[in-house]
């Protein structure tokens, strides 16, 4: 029995490296930050850097204004040169000075002709024949018809009016009042105006995402950003596709907290302290106050500003890569043991799909180890008592 007890004790000591834990300690996160996969011994490890958050860095992150749509598509200079296209409905009004002309009578000196531009870009007008409309402005079309009538009609004049613009449609679908094919007018129209024509968004701007597809380019931005940043409210163009989706913003909280969970923002904005309160806060007995982290894929402009160009280029050489949206992995660290952290935490914004990780204190693992060891030691003590009792009986 003494041998059994000794064996159990040695097994417990050998297993000290296998003490379970909930996620990495703060020291492990800091140790891996800024290291390449080869340097940390994992070839395909994600390379990231760490930023200690203070008042200055918090303001930099908070003041950043995303310009996804403007950067990708450009707000442009308005609608530019508006031309007639295939499928457009036009009204051609022809006037003559005389009362016995081709298009005039004693009762009326004008004739109106309704036409639709055909797939070949042309439409027929009596006594003129087929006229090329597609690619021309209304004024150019007017001049074409007028020139063709000068030798046929009596002092003719022409007015060309656009009745509908099938060639200038934009498709709006998704979480809007009514999915629609919206015809563009001849004046500037922005994303917000086109969405309004489709009945407007059905959800709050802070949980509504707008995706614009133009040719082979795609860009997605929060409707809230379009409203707050006018440069994102770009002009739409014929053929654009706009998809509106309701996707409540969420963050995930893990580690030494009351509960590991995914939490909806439920508000227009959310800072770190509000997020922690919304999730129930950390565990009083297990939390490392110096080990609050936010794991995020951050915009390249922000990462470069936080790290500096030299450090940023160094991280690229070490293998730091972007996600599908061109953002870089970054970890923000907060020291909640400092009084000003309660001020800084109010200015640091939480973003959609952030992961807030509260590291446990190193003493937690030591306590687990002691409990782990105590179990076989207790068994061993029982074994010693049994062995002593057996020896007493034998004697």
Automatic annotation (TrEMBL):
<keyword id="KW-0998">Cell outer membrane</keyword>
<dbReference type="GO" id="GO:0015159">
    <property type="term" value="F:polysaccharide transmembrane transporter activity"/>
</dbReference>
<dbReference type="InterPro" id="IPR003715">
    <property type="entry name" value="Poly_export_N"/>
</dbReference>
<keyword id="KW-1134">Transmembrane beta strand</keyword>
<dbReference type="Pfam" id="PF22461">
    <property type="entry name" value="SLBB_2"/>
</dbReference>
<keyword id="KW-0812">Transmembrane</keyword>
<keyword id="KW-0732">Signal</keyword>
<feature type="domain" description="Polysaccharide export protein N-terminal">
    <location>
        <begin position="82"/>
        <end position="161"/>
    </location>
</feature>
<protein>
    <submittedName>
        <fullName>Polysaccharide export protein</fullName>
    </submittedName>
</protein>
<dbReference type="GO" id="GO:0009279">
    <property type="term" value="C:cell outer membrane"/>
</dbReference>
<dbReference type="InterPro" id="IPR054765">
    <property type="entry name" value="SLBB_dom"/>
</dbReference>
<keyword id="KW-0813">Transport</keyword>
<keyword id="KW-0564">Palmitate</keyword>
<keyword id="KW-0626">Porin</keyword>
<keyword id="KW-0449">Lipoprotein</keyword>
<feature type="signal peptide">
    <location>
        <begin position="1"/>
        <end position="18"/>
    </location>
</feature>
<keyword id="KW-0472">Membrane</keyword>
<keyword id="KW-0625">Polysaccharide transport</keyword>
<dbReference type="GO" id="GO:0046930">
    <property type="term" value="C:pore complex"/>
</dbReference>
<dbReference type="InterPro" id="IPR049712">
    <property type="entry name" value="Poly_export"/>
</dbReference>
<dbReference type="GO" id="GO:0006811">
    <property type="term" value="P:monoatomic ion transport"/>
</dbReference>
<feature type="domain" description="SLBB">
    <location>
        <begin position="169"/>
        <end position="244"/>
    </location>
</feature>
<dbReference type="GO" id="GO:0015288">
    <property type="term" value="F:porin activity"/>
</dbReference>
<keyword id="KW-0406">Ion transport</keyword>
<comment type="similarity">
    <text>Belongs to the BexD/CtrA/VexA family.</text>
</comment>
<keyword id="KW-0762">Sugar transport</keyword>
<dbReference type="Pfam" id="PF02563">
    <property type="entry name" value="Poly_export"/>
</dbReference>
């Amino acid at each position: 029995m003494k041998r059994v007890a000794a064996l159990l004790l040695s097994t417990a000591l050998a297993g000290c490296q296998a003490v379970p834990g909930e996620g990495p300690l703060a020291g492990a996160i800091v140790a891996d930050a800024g290291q390449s996969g080869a340097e940390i011994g994992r070839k395909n490890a994600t390379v990231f850097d760490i930023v200690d958050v203070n008042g200055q860095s918090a303001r930099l992150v908070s003041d950043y204004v995303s310009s996804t749509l403007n950067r990708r598509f450009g707000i442009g200079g308005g609608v530019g040169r508006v031309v007639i296209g295939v499928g457009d409905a036009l009204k051609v009004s022809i006037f003559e000075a005389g009362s016995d002309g081709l298009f005039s009578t004693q009762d009326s000196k004008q004739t109106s002709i309704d036409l639709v531009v055909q797939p070949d870009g042309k439409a027929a007008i009596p006594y003129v024949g087929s006229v090329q409309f597609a690619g021309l402005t209304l004024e150019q079309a007017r001049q074409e018809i007028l020139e063709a009538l000068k030798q046929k009609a009596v002092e003719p004049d022409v007015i060309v009016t656009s009745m509908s613009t099938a060639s200038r449609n934009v498709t709006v679908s998704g979480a809007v009042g009514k999915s629609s094919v919206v015809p563009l007018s001849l004046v500037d129209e922005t994303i917000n105006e086109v969405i309004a024509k489709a009945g407007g968004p059905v959800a709050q701007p802070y949980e509504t995402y707008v995706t614009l597809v133009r040719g082979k380019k795609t860009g997605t931005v929060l409707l809230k950003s379009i409203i707050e940043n006018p440069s994102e409210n770009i002009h739409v163009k014929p053929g654009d596709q706009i998809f509106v989706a309701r996707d409540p913003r969420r963050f995930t909280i893990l580690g030494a907290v009351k509960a590991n969970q995914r939490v909806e923002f439920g508000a227009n904005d959310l800072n770190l302290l509000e997020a922690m309160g919304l999730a129930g806060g950390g565990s009083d007995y297990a939390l490392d106050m110096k080990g609050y982290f936010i794991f995020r894929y951050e915009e390249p402009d922000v990462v470069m500003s936080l790290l500096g160009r030299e450090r940023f280029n160094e991280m690229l050489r070490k293998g730091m890569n972007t996600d599908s949206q061109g953002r870089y992995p970054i970890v923000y660290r907060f020291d909640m043991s400092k009084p000003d952290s309660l001020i800084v935490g109010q200015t640091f914004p939480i973003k959609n799909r952030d992961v807030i990780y509260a590291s446990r204190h190193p003493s937690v693992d030591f306590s687990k180890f002691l409990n782990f060891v105590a179990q076989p030691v207790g068994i061993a003590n029982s074994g010693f008592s049994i062995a002593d009792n057996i020896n007493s009986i034998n004697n």
